[in-house]
């Protein structure tokens, strides 16, 4: 089997990676009364705590700020926990990888699905906020932009998983970087508030574009064209790099874990 | 129903497993070479390419090994710890890529290496049947159709609803064996531990192995037990330092072991 066939074979075995993802979620429910609803509570608390404080600090109306914050954090949890979980994708699968010949791409994809399921739980918080503050989302663009986000998360997960398996310290570094990006990405602050050189924080930050394409429709706005363009370009480039990296390194993953 | 033993690789066209000139080197990523910081620092300070000077330590586990297995053949692999038995099994399973040479395996491979390997001990028995089945590339309908059979054969029955971490090692190995054999693999690779079940289960397991092998399937079994190999295999191979020291039909195994012992004793004396 060529490297490309191994990758395609792994993608076709979607039942396997979705099964693993559901097992992960079941695991969180085991021995816990509310399981993944812990992240729901975390999200709700963050929105409530930050919402009242920052809307005052930045002098914006709460009606607009709360849905913005809720939508931003909802997607940020999805992006950031996918990246952080991906750092452990291969070590976590060690017992499977050492037992049988399994296409390694299965494990980063499992991470994406796992976090998608958690995202489903977290949606609940946004719905509550949207109802309270009377926001009407425009779901139609999401039919395109949400899959586009997931496609980007998939290549990101693959690359992070490979790099973190090979270099253990890199996993730590990446986890910490996500904490950094939480603050430099427009999640707590609105993108329109920055100007001059500070607009680089929005323009040259891929996470800002990832957020924009899915957050805007939830706010009932059209996503910025530039963000859709950037995300589409990143999807193509990212997948090209991820496939190249897999072809070169996927057989060595078993030695790294 | 014993298939003719074949020592040499003459007509390899009908072989299910074809190994040619197989060398496997295992890179050992030590703590230093694995750390990103270290490689960053060493490139900065040393200014040398990592691959030239700081590449991982490599251990040659198998050297230029050839092997053909035809339908119905059962190969027992013996050798000291570190002789390359497990590496050979993992190379046959496609877990370890060949450094040189080639491994061709036609058909569905089932592996039983360490107890619990490939299982999730937090998940219950039923979920682990799916996990092991999916790892082999089986579809869910096929897996579901065999659950009752696995429950009966393994004798686990209602215990399949309990987490595997509550199982004894014998129960876990019975589950792994039942899963590995219920889906009728073309090639069955086993590492030692089949002997961990109780006596009754051992008899059942052996009966099932022979049943499988009557359907022209291939088994490779690594073990320290000559007695077990004589009973279950048609051929034997003794590995030493990653190379084939001796091989032949099992009828010659006792003879071979005597000779190996003699050689070892001689080399032992020579060392003194």
From TrEMBL, chain A:
Give an example GO biological process.
lipopolysaccharide transport
**What GO CC annotations are associated with the protein?**
plasma membrane
So which domain of life are we looking at? Bacteria
Q: Which UniProt keywords apply?
A: Cell membrane, Membrane, Polysaccharide transport, Sugar transport, Transmembrane, Transmembrane helix, Transport
Q: What is its main location?
A: membrane
The entry's localization annotation reads: Cell membrane
One GO molecular-function entry:
ABC-type transporter activity
UniProt KW Cell membrane keyword: yes
Q: Which residues form the ABC-2 type transporter transmembrane domain?
A: 19-216
Q: Which InterPro entries does its entry note?
A: ABC2_TM
Pfam families reported in the protein's UniProt record: ABC2_membrane (PF01061)
Bilayer topology annotation: Multi-pass membrane protein
Residues annotated as transmembrane:
33-54, 66-90, 111-134, 140-165, 177-204, 224-247
What family classification does the UniProt entry report for this protein? Belongs to the ABC-2 integral membrane protein family.
What name does the UniProt record give this protein?
Answer: ABC transporter permease
Classification lineage? Bacteria, Pseudomonadati, Pseudomonadota, Alphaproteobacteria, Maricaulales
Automatic annotation (TrEMBL), chain B:
Record GO terms (molecular function):
ABC-type transporter activity; ATP binding; ATP hydrolysis activity
Q: Where is the ABC transporter domain?
A: 47-266
Where do the coiled-coil regions begin and end? none
- Look up the record and report any one GO term of the cellular component aspect: membrane
Q: Which UniProt keywords apply?
A: ATP-binding, Nucleotide-binding, Transport
UniProt similarity note: Belongs to the ABC transporter superfamily.
Q: What is this protein called?
A: ABC transporter ATP-binding protein
Organism in which the protein naturally occurs: Marinicauda pacifica
